[in-house]
What does this fold into?
Amino acid sequence: MNLPSVFIFNWIFLLALFPVAFFWLRRAWRILVKNDFSEVALKKGLPPPDAEKYAPYEMAINMIGGVVIVVLLVAVLGFQALASEDWVAIAGVTLWVKLFASFALGRQAHGLGPAKKKPAAGK
It folds into this structure.
């Protein structure tokens, strides 16, 4: 790959961090301020029955990830304090750690075993 294409991909990645930070911080805001637990520890798009129990963990995961991305954006765009390889590495690690942490929390909240079948209503 030649230099201009790397430059373009870096800018696309940098611009993609804006909506990522927005959605993560919005999720943390919904959990912390609005007490909306509909997006806490999701598994197959559904929250666990006791979502309020896992809300502080999900809020912390989203808040830390969002703040790291915002600080990274300010450092790169505002102060030009990081080299390209450095901010790409920080952003990539933040994305993956947040995804793995949310995935693990969702599995922990829903239980690690196979789904249990509910008994029939008439029996």
In short: The helical segments are 3-32, 51-78, 84-110. Residues 3-32 form the longest helix (30 residues). The two ends are 65 Å apart (CA to CA).
